């Protein structure tokens, strides 16, 4: 990601929010899956199963990223830099 210099100094990744939203989605997907299986609605049960798989996958990615720990973020003393244009043709006027 390119640094523009306008990023907030206290910006944080929303991983904890994604963690809780994934857990919330899992709870509702399991509840919907169980309810639709009991009532015999196969299409809706399949939709809830797909949502459950998506929520579990997102949860796995979030937990993995959280366990990696913090990454280097440049401080105020690092100025913004122009994009790397080496080897690229410039299009336009």
TrEMBL record:
SUPFAM superfamilies: MFS general substrate transporter. Residues 69-93 are annotated as: Disordered. The chain crosses the membrane at residues 20-38, 44-63. Pfam families: DUF6343 (PF19870). It comes from the Bacteria. InterPro entries: DUF6343, MFS_trans_sf. Keywords: Membrane, Transmembrane, Transmembrane helix. The keyword Secreted does not apply. This is DUF6343 family protein.
């Amino acid at each position: 990601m390119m640094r523009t210099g306008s990023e907030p100094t206290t910006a944080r990744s929303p991983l904890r929010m994604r963690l809780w939203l994934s857990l919330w989605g899992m709870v509702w997907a399991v509840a919907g899956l169980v309810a639709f299986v009991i009532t015999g609605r196969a299409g809706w049960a399949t939709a809830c199963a797909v949502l459950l798989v998506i929520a579990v996958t997102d949860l796995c990615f979030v937990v993995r990223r959280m366990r990696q720990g913090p990454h280097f973020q440049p401080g105020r003393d690092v100025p913004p830099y122009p994009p790397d244009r080496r080897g690229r043709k410039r299009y336009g006027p």
